Amino acid sequence: MRVLHVAYQQLRRYGHTRVSWAQKLFYGLIKNGHHVQGFSDRDVAAFEAPLGIRDLGVGKANRRLLEMAEALQPELVVVGHCDMIHNRTLEEIRRLLPQVAIAGCNNDPLFIRQNVDKIAHRCEVVDAMFVSTGTAELKQFEGRRARLYHMPNPVDEAIEYQDASRHEQLPIDLIYCSNAVQHTRRLEDVGYLRRHLAAELVFKTYGSFGEAPVWGRDYDRALGQSKMGVNFNRSEGLQWYSSARMAQLGGNGLLVFTHDSAGFDSLFPPQTLVYYRDLDQLLALIRDFHADNAKRRAWAAATRHFFHQQINSRLNAQYIVESTLQLTHSHPYVWAGH
Predict the structure, then answer these.
(1) Do residue 183 and residue 97 come from a single domain?
(2) Residues 94 and 235 in one domain
(3) Which residue stretches of the chain are H helix?
(4) Does the predicted model carry a pTM greater than 0.90?
């Protein structure tokens, strides 16, 4: 199948990239045998704009997307985080290609009002909308054109290729990476852990408390040197909502601590993710697993195995294609029965 994938592809970061769910979707589509053409709206806008001023290139980016759609003749268009692409451009693609199916994907949280508005707006024109929060939270978008689906944060064998669970000793005991401070108070929780654990283990907080953030290969290297990771989200409590960090940690074989309010125990098998309800319990759990290497390695290995077997880029891409085209599911997707 010919697929036109519209999403920010970080071309102008020149290797200093964030781990990208959009890139994993692109890889998954290709691994499943599709002919995929990428279109990076922000980069095209900057390349086409006078003096490289991106905002001046929005109109040209929309015209270039129409040009690409007409040349490629895709059977499926997948639009991710591409705010520069107008709904009317997608409607024009549908006019040019009456048989095309259009899927929308959104990996941002629903506790940010601006993102809720973006999803609602895109639901007016796409056939199916895939959101990284669980379907229990998606009822607010009903009544528009789009059918609504959950989309997990997957791992990819080429990206999450490391396995910390195989190692008895590593230089970093616990890691937390983030430099995002809006819509959250999680740095207070990180600070609480730092104060209580400083004398007991090596806790690296890249991007916070004076430690520089890490990107690209530096991020990969940091994960490969770490035993355990804390998955603090900017807000907790939405069904199956997590930062993509959880897949990055778990997929690389780190033991993952995550809040129990998202209900991941209904998705993941027992003795995989480690759930906590408050900071005191989290402290106790960190100390427990830090003192028991065999237990830490067993739980982390089980998490990594589950991610790579059941929540990987191939299955994620296959689910998006089949659901958008309303085909019978070819796999018992663990997230699809809810």
Answers:
(1) no
(2) no
(3) 21-31, 41-48, 58-72, 87-96, 113-122, 186-197, 216-224, 245-251, 279-291, 293-310, 313-324
(4) yes
